[in-house]
Amino acid sequence: MHIDARDLGYAYGPEGFAFRHVNLTIKPGENISLVGPSGSGKTTLLKVLLGLLSPTEGQIIVNGRDLKDW
Question: Sheet harboring 57-62: ordered strands across?
């Protein structure tokens, strides 16, 4: 599975963004690691990449197809 995140961002309403301007490519068979301090948005980013949360901005492409179309 090939995943591209393009200028991805997620905000929890007016409190501000959990993350913003994330660009990421995960190629088939590739292993990645999300590392950062508590509260830095790692779990939220994973939930957005899995489609459990909708990004506030940006786009996720899975195998050449927008995640919104799955």
Answer: 17-26, 3-11, 57-62, 65-66
